[in-house]
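Throughout our pipeline, every protein is held as a single compact record rather than as scattered files. Nothing more is needed to write down the fold, since each code stands for a local backbone conformation. The record that follows is passed on verbatim for readers who wish to inspect the format.
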Amino acid sequence: MEKKCGCWAVLKRSVKGACKSSDSKNSVTTIPRTSLVHDAVTETRYLNASNREMCAPDEPQDSSDNPNPVPPPSDSNAPRQLLQFSFQELKAATGNFRPDSILGEGGFGYVFKGWIEENGTAPAKPGSGTTVAVKSLKPDGLQGHREWVAEVDFLGQLHHPNLVKLIGYCIEDDQRLLVYEFMTRGSLENHLFRRTIPLPWCNRIKIALGAARGLAFLHGGSEPVIYRDFKTSNILLDSEYNAKLSDFGLAKAGPRGDNTHVSTRVVGTYGYAAPEYVMTGHLSSKSDVYSFGVVLLEILTGRRSMDKKRPSGEQNLVVWARPYLADKRKVYQLVDPRLELNYSLKGVQKVSQLAYNCLSRDPKSRPSMDEIVKVLTPLQDLNDLAITSYHARSSQQAKRKKKSDGMHQLSYNQSRSIRDSPLNSGKQRCK
């Protein structure tokens, strides 16, 4: 039988006492915080710092982080109630959490593929009912529980075509699980970096636009939300390559009123987090915009944000790409070579300029996500493929060469005719 629950009351009882904030002086950050104003040298030092997660899962939480980031909705305006699953139901739905059903692993646990009955919580046979993704939180670690609560808190209220749908949850003894809609094509990270067949340009633009719409929705609400962990592994794709943002464990309520930012502990992933956020702890919607710029670069280049296997000057994507982005004549050198010439010429120009603006060292100079959506939307319809232009130029060059060869042959014949003329015979015998 279907079980529904107004989950926030349950969560508050469960969290009470378990999520007390640690003293902020115990919070660990890996890079000293400096002033908000920073130069290129300071930023580059940050960008080259590391490829590890900025905060370990068991890091003490700063007192500025509220374990319940968004106030729970009242019963009258709650948009949707989540299903409450028992642990045994999810255990059966995933085949006893068998290893071959693992879809992926995050910092706080595994994600399993499972099947449940439609519109209910009962497990279903594989291939029947509704396919779901079940995230199982590691039982050890208070930080993981906070993120589990944040995930339910945000996705329990936020609904948008470009946000992954949270179906329900399980909170039973020390078990913490979340049940999401299953995303057929997995993450953008897999398609960009782990598959031999390159992701087509048109799909890359579609994914970038969908992810941008998701962020724009978060930033534009009456109670803005800062995603704080925007990266390719958190962008999931359905069968039609529609992008949906997942993993809201680090999301945080944005500034209100006249405030320009919120101050919080520094978490996220090196290579994606905005420099001013890492160096000061000041978090704003423009922090997400910077992260979007990094992902846009990954989509454009087919390179990871951080790659220690590359030469020293190319390990950090932003550091390597920024000089190319600033020169319109060089931007095509950034394009993923696996695409060969199957990309839009104007699209590359627009995407490069957009990435450059998103990665501005001055947060105020970065565009809003609404502005980014407006730039990306018309790029879906461009058909000025580089390969078409290349063939056109090659054809023109061939015609010019043929014409040039013909003129050369004509000139040669004219010269020979003049040389063999009786009027010129005397000159020909001169020695």
Summary: The chain has a mean pLDDT of 79. The chain is about 35% helix and 15% strand. The radius of gyration is 28 Å. Residues 4-17+69-181 form a domain with the Phosphorylase Kinase; domain 1 fold (CATH 3.30.200.20).
